[in-house]
Specification:
The protein is globular. With 139 residues, it is α+β, with helices and mostly antiparallel strands. The chain has a five-stranded antiparallel sheet with strand order 1-2-5-3-4. The N and C termini lie far apart (46 Å). Helix content is 35%, strand content 26%. The protein has helices at residues 27-32, 38-48, 58-63, 70-77, 108-112, 116-121, 133-138; strands at 12-14, 18-22, 81-90, 98-107, 125-132.
Length: 139
């Protein structure tokens, strides 16, 4: 019998300038992920894990991150961008206006400036974290 696993938003990709990581990974899974750059795994182990639990997902870590946290300074230095989905009211030409998800890119300061209660009210889902390779090599 073959089992099917639902692993949406669990991926590691990279292009010339950035590394993209799906936010459903736990920190423990990220440390074991061979496709992720070694330097990024080292940064997670040394700087992020002292503040976070290894069982936390990257999504929940970013969702509840406070602006005064050391991790925010680190993410700022790594030129992190976060892809989020939010529910917005849309006007339509025909029919009733409705709500639909819109994808946005945010930097870490924009994300942490929104309190968790407002994120929940807006229906925010954190999908992806992207890190600059140039900034990663400089850390």
């Amino acid at each position: 019998m073959q089992k099917t696993y639902y692993e949406d938003y669990k991926y590691c990709m990279q292009d010339v300038g950035r590394v993209y990581v799906g936010c459903k990974y736990t920190f423990e899974e990220l440390l074991d992920e061979e496709d992720l750059l070694f330097k990024f795994r080292l940064i997670i182990e040394r700087y992020i894990l002292p503040e976070a639990d290894p069982g936390d997902t990257l999504e929940s870590h970013l969702y509840y991150l406070r602006p005064e946290s050391f991790a925010v300074k680190l993410y700022r230095r790594l030129k992190v961008r976060v892809k989020v989905s939010v529910i917005e009211e849309r006007k339509r030409l025909f029919g009733k206006p409705g709500k639909e998800y819109t994808v946005r890119q945010m930097d870490i300061d924009q994300l942490t400036s929104i309190p968790p209660a407002e994120k929940e009210k807006a229906g925010m889902i954190i999908q992806e974290l992207s890190v600059s390779k140039l900034a990663l090599s400089a850390v």
